[in-house]
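Blackboard transcription, Thursday session:
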Amino acid sequence: DIQLTQSPSFLSASVGDRVTITCRASQGISSYLAWYQQKPGKAPKVLIYAASTLQSGVPSRFSGSGSGTEFTLTISSLQPEDFATYYCQQLNSYPLTFGGGTKVEIK
Amino acid sequence: EVQLVVSGGGLVQPGGSLRLSCAASGFTFSDHYMDWVRQAPGKGLEWVGRSRNKANSYTTEYAASVKGRFSISRDDSKNSLYLQMNSLKTEDTAVYYCARNLPSGDIGFDYWGQGTLVTVSS
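(Written on the board underneath:)
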């Protein structure tokens, strides 16, 4: 199985900060990576797919990069509505797997 | 408007069975791969399994943790996806989501149902 390791697992930041979350895969997954945002009590919402493609309707302050085994999600200027938990997911091979999550909280 | 509505959760004893349903609307259901994902209380996301679309013969994939106990099916005439869960264990307690795959292939899930809580306890 492909393991996804997210770092950090917890992040405290202020409105306006630039935030970067890393997702490392235990083996190469090309660009078969998606990023999701989840707020308490809600279903996840896709932000980025195919490693770097912004889902329609998602603000442009979100961006994704990487391929192979190392990927990043960047929020260029953190907004109040961005405080949530973020997950990466690999879709390269079965079983599909998610990273452990990164909780972004208000500093 | 795309909608996925999940139903069928509840309290069940260990060893029992439960069937979840995911009713889809607002898109051509038969065109899409559909997946089940679960989330144990306070934990992260765990992929459960997949139903491929008609063009791919409705084949399925499962996580090792549920293989042989859970079964995914779909009825395109009813725009519905199902998760039959047998031999339930306490560790299957979770919120269960259905999710639609993006149209372009194995690149992510663009719509999710609201989730339904399954509690396995005596």
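Lecturer's comment: Chain A touches chain B at residues 1, 32, 34, 36, 38, 43-46, 48-50, 53, 55, 87, 89, 91-92, 94-101 (CB under 8 Å).
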